[in-house]
């Protein structure tokens, strides 16, 4: 079941609301809040995210009286609600009575009670008590007509992204038995003859941390196979926590959709493995700066791609500031509206806040909120939020369920992220997300409708498949990418692709391993230089760019050279190649290329497939499309700081203002302004 399947008020428009914690304030404040919510167009509230201590004061005592009163008030004032399972933070009594439930960190230190996300995911006590609470909640509230969705846990991950306690060691060995079946197979996968690491008994295996296989930090390990498996195991362990609670809910509520809030490009958890278990994807959008529109576009696309293009929710964003950073700038005028519509442009059917009213105390008391401590509704930020709510009301349900009609795909792979960053001998300054973002940004700036997919997803229907730094090769992805080229499509890959198998062992042949026949090249050497040192990239037509950090020395074996290095002993050797495959082609970029080099790379590719957007030449003007039963909607989102003039690509009506726009008309778009054009 999805949000758009519902027939109640929550399905009439883009869902608008956020995280509400009335238990933190006196009862008389609730009525003030409800009046403000009505003024802002807020119709859905997320309740109970961190209420475990209130709902269960002791192991054998439950008290739902306060939550009953909160839900009664929310519904009486005309709103629906999302209900959390309240298990994102342990209550003090649980850690005190069962100290084994708290985590051991990467340094091997046993943590005491405090903070949040503080449980060991493999604690038998936690695995017993957390679903028990979820089940009680579902039994009591699961059939409530105003319940929109279940919010299970909260931002899974926590400190260090995992736990390294004895319970985790026991569970890890069980996980390894299920994965490998025998010690012989495990020893082979981990290349355990290296450094006398051959295991003769399962109990000899311990979690890899600073006390065992690691030095300097999480990315420096003697045995990548062990560390990579532990990353997979810990992601699976937290997924099992989610599934424990979801199963308890389903025992009482078989239909209300369930989710948990992801965190975008979050390294510890393989969200692609999690996604099939969520009824819809949701995530928390807290960009690290105020010029992060390209990064947000990638992350929205990644979240949408987790369920093959289905709409997602923004479960949290801040109306004003994020209070967890060293410097916390406020969102400038117009940015809240712009970024909210950007999320909708990329597939969001819900835009929710953390938080609805500022907490009176503790570490988030200055975090942004719809209402400040005084509860004022005459502030700039509240007026902007209310205006956005009015726009969502005006647009209604026209956009709900609409999808992105993409013919280009970019591959994002958690296993390649982990493997490339825990490996010695490469360049530790080369971060996998930065590589992926560079390729996404080049396509985004060209106005390409783009899906972000996994190595397991179907490639049929895509004219262009881009796989930056696909370091670790799983399944038959090399063969499926070749099929894209053979039927007339284009495939693009970058340096460090095709180096290792699923166990992080090097392919015993020329790089790029299984991809070598597709790209028609082999890698002879791989150079690595410090940040700031670059090599020029020059095309035959004289266009130049640059590359940094990693530089592969290619030997063409069928591929044609499109661009060469300009400097060092490998000046004149190919850095960009193109290989004809069937009726298509495969391009290989042998270095970490800059924006200019990538723009030049994609220009002929996008032209060949007719993928260039209508406003590709307008800097910081984002173009995106959603198409569904309500029509085809073109989003123009101006992230620039100066007005821009463009020629309208199509005729239609701007659903935000009601203004008629004709194809060929000159449009002057103000900084941070948005047009949502329902095309004729």
Automatic annotation (TrEMBL):
<dbReference type="InterPro" id="IPR013739">
    <property type="entry name" value="Beta_galactosidase_C"/>
</dbReference>
<comment type="similarity">
    <text>Belongs to the glycosyl hydrolase 42 family.</text>
</comment>
<dbReference type="InterPro" id="IPR003476">
    <property type="entry name" value="Glyco_hydro_42"/>
</dbReference>
<feature type="binding site">
    <location>
        <position position="168"/>
    </location>
    <ligand>
        <name>Zn(2+)</name>
    </ligand>
</feature>
<feature type="domain" description="Glycoside hydrolase family 42 N-terminal">
    <location>
        <begin position="19"/>
        <end position="394"/>
    </location>
</feature>
<keyword id="KW-0862">Zinc</keyword>
<keyword id="KW-0479">Metal-binding</keyword>
<dbReference type="InterPro" id="IPR013738">
    <property type="entry name" value="Beta_galactosidase_Trimer"/>
</dbReference>
<feature type="binding site">
    <location>
        <position position="116"/>
    </location>
    <ligand>
        <name>substrate</name>
    </ligand>
</feature>
<feature type="binding site">
    <location>
        <position position="163"/>
    </location>
    <ligand>
        <name>Zn(2+)</name>
    </ligand>
</feature>
<dbReference type="InterPro" id="IPR017853">
    <property type="entry name" value="GH"/>
</dbReference>
<dbReference type="Pfam" id="PF08533">
    <property type="entry name" value="Glyco_hydro_42C"/>
</dbReference>
<feature type="active site" description="Nucleophile">
    <location>
        <position position="316"/>
    </location>
</feature>
<feature type="binding site">
    <location>
        <position position="154"/>
    </location>
    <ligand>
        <name>substrate</name>
    </ligand>
</feature>
<dbReference type="InterPro" id="IPR029062">
    <property type="entry name" value="Class_I_gatase-like"/>
</dbReference>
<keyword id="KW-0378">Hydrolase</keyword>
<feature type="domain" description="Beta-galactosidase C-terminal">
    <location>
        <begin position="621"/>
        <end position="679"/>
    </location>
</feature>
<dbReference type="GO" id="GO:0009341">
    <property type="term" value="C:beta-galactosidase complex"/>
</dbReference>
<dbReference type="Pfam" id="PF08532">
    <property type="entry name" value="Glyco_hydro_42M"/>
</dbReference>
<dbReference type="Pfam" id="PF02449">
    <property type="entry name" value="Glyco_hydro_42"/>
</dbReference>
<dbReference type="GO" id="GO:0046872">
    <property type="term" value="F:metal ion binding"/>
</dbReference>
<feature type="binding site">
    <location>
        <position position="165"/>
    </location>
    <ligand>
        <name>Zn(2+)</name>
    </ligand>
</feature>
<dbReference type="GO" id="GO:0004565">
    <property type="term" value="F:beta-galactosidase activity"/>
</dbReference>
<dbReference type="GO" id="GO:0006012">
    <property type="term" value="P:galactose metabolic process"/>
</dbReference>
<feature type="active site" description="Proton donor">
    <location>
        <position position="155"/>
    </location>
</feature>
<protein>
    <recommendedName>
        <fullName>Beta-galactosidase</fullName>
        <ecNumber>3.2.1.23</ecNumber>
    </recommendedName>
</protein>
<feature type="domain" description="Beta-galactosidase trimerisation">
    <location>
        <begin position="406"/>
        <end position="611"/>
    </location>
</feature>
<dbReference type="InterPro" id="IPR013529">
    <property type="entry name" value="Glyco_hydro_42_N"/>
</dbReference>
<dbReference type="InterPro" id="IPR013780">
    <property type="entry name" value="Glyco_hydro_b"/>
</dbReference>
<feature type="binding site">
    <location>
        <position position="120"/>
    </location>
    <ligand>
        <name>Zn(2+)</name>
    </ligand>
</feature>
<keyword id="KW-0326">Glycosidase</keyword>
């Amino acid at each position: 079941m999805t949000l758009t399947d519902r027939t109640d008020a929550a399905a009439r428009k883009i869902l608008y609301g956020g995280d509400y914690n009335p238990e933190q304030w006196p009862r008389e404040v609730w009525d003030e809040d409800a009046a403000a919510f009505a003024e802002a167009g807020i119709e859905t509230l997320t309740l109970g995210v961190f209420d475990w201590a209130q709902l269960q004061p002791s192991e054998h005592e439950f008290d739902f009286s306060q939550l009953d009163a909160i839900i009664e008030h929310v519904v009486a004032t005309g709103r629906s609600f999302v209900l959390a399972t309240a298990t994102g933070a342990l209550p003090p009594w649980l850690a005190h009575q069962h100290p084994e439930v708290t985590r051991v960190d990467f340094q091997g230190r046993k943590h005491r009670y405090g903070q949040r996300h503080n449980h060991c995911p493999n604690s038998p006590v936690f695995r017993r008590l957390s679903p028990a609470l979820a089940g009680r909640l579902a039994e009591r509230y699961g059939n409530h007509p105003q319940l929109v969705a279940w919010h299970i846990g909260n931002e899974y991950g926590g400190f260090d992204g995992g736990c390294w306690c004895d319970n985790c060691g026991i569970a890890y060995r069980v996980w390894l038995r299920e994965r490998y079946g025998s010690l012989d197979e495990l020893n082979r996968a981990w290349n355990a003859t290296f450094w006398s690491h051959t295991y003769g008994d399962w109990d000899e295996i311990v979690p890899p941390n600073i006390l065992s296989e690691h030095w300097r930090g999480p990315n420096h390990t003697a045995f990548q196979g062990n560390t990579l498996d532990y990353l997979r195991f810990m992601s699976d362990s937290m997924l099992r926590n989610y599934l424990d609670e979801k199963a308890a809910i389903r025992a009482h509520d078989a239909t209300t959709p369930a989710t948990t809030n992801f965190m975008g490009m979050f390294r510890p958890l393989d969200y692609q493995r999690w996604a099939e278990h969520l009824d819809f994807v949701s995530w928390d959008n807290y960009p690290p700066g105020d010029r992060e529109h390209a990064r947000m576009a990638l992350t929205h696309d990644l979240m949408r791609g987790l369920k093959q293009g289905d709409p997602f929710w923004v479960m949290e964003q801040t109306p004003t500031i994020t209070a967890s950073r060293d410097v916390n700038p406020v969102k400038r005028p117009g940015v809240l509206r712009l970024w909210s519509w950007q999320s909708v442009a990329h597939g969001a059917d819900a835009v929710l806040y953390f938080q609805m009213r500022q907490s009176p105390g503790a570490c988030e008391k200055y975090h942004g909120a719809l209402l400040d401590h005084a509860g004022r509704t005459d502030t700039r930020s509240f007026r902007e939020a209310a205006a956005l709510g009015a726009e969502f009301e005006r647009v209604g349900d026209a956009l709900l369920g609409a999808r992105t009609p993409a013919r280009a795909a970019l591959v994002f792979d958690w296993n390649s992220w982990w493997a490339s960053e825990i490996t010695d001998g490469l360049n530790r300054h080369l971060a996998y997300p930065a590589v992926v973002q560079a390729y996404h940004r080049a396509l985004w700036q060209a106005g390409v409708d783009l899906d972000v997919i996994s190595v397991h997803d179907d490639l049929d229907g895509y004219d262009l498949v881009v796989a930056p730094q696909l370091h670790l090769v799983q399944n038959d992805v090399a063969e499926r990418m070749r099929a894209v080229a053979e039927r007339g499509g284009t495939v693009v890959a970058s340096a460090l692709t095709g180096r290792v198998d699923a166990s992080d062992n090097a392919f015993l042949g020329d790089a790029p391993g299984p991809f070598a026949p597709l790209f028609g090249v082999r890698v002879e050497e791989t150079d690595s230089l410090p940040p700031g040192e670059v090599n020029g990239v020059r095309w035959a037509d004289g266009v130049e760019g640059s590359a940094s950090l990693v530089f592969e020395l290619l030997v063409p074996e069928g591929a044609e050279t499109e661009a060469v290095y300009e400097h060092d002993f490998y000046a004149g050797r190919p850095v960009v190649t193109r290989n004809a495959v069937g009726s298509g082609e495969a391009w290989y970029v042998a270095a970490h290329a800059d924006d200019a080099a990538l723009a030049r790379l994609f220009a002929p590719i996008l032209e060949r497939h007719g993928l260039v957007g209508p406003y590709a030449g307008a800097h910081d003007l984002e173009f995106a499309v959603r198409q569904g039963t309500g029509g085809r909607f073109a989003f123009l989102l101006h992230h620039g700081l100066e007005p821009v003039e463009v020629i309208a690509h199509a005729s239609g009506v701007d659903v935000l203002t009601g203004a008629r726009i004709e194809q060929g008309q000159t449009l002057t778009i103000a900084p941070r302004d948005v047009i949502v054009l329902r095309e004729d």
